[in-house]
Amino acid sequence: MKKYTWLIVIGAIALLVVIGFSFTVAQRNALIALEESVNAAWSEVDNQLQRRSDLIPNLVATVQGFAAQEREVFADIADARARLAGAGSVRETAESYEQLQSALGRLLVVVENYPQLRSNENFIRLQDELAGTENRIAVARQRYNSSVQTFNGRIRMFPASLFAPGLGLSQRDYFEISEAAREVPRVDFN
Predict the structure, then answer these.
(1) For residue 186, with 0-12 CB atoms within 10 Å meaning exposed, 13-18 middle and 19 or more buried, which class applies?
(2) Is residue 112 within a helix (H) or strand (E), and if so which, with residue range?
(3) How much is the pTM?
(4) Got the DSSP string for 155-175?
(5) Rounded Cα–Cα distance for residues 100 and 92 (Å)
(6) How many helices and strands (H and E) does the chain possess?
(7) Which range of residues forms the domain containing residue 7?
(8) What is the chain's mean pLDDT, rounded?
(9) What is the mean pLDDT of residues 119-135?
(10) Is residue 189 part of a domain?
(11) What CATH number does the domain containing 112 carry?
């Protein structure tokens, strides 16, 4: 009878170890999958920002042919584009994105002063491409922020909060714009 009791105890302990190990592996795998989801979402944001960055020189070149005297606007766009390309974090990317948005806004004000440019087929096509890219960026940002929300929530909740620090996982930054960038730009053509 004693022999069976020891076997039952050893079996129960082994079963608990297997269950505990399985639970740990499942938690670890779920956290890694969520982290990869955030990484993939950020990659899509980065991809769309690069697409936009690649379109901008064509747009600038088209406008430059009509408005060569607007050097400051072109320099601001080039500087903002370089900052965006060199951004190393989500925060730096968001700040660079805002700077580029502002410079592009000033470029579109310049365009308003050149009616023949507004009717130029190349300009219209580039403007449409840029608008489409802006929509893609908005969708990619939304997906990234949604993935970050899920990831951040999960690593803060029990039991994942026990495993996240050991895996080197910490909260991710949202892709947010500053309060200043939320203000509607004032355009006056008078």
Answers:
(1) exposed
(2) helix 90-112
(3) 0.69
(4) HHSTTHHHHTGGGT--PPPP-
(5) 12
(6) 7, 0
(7) 2-182
(8) 83
(9) 81
(10) no
(11) 1.20.1440.20
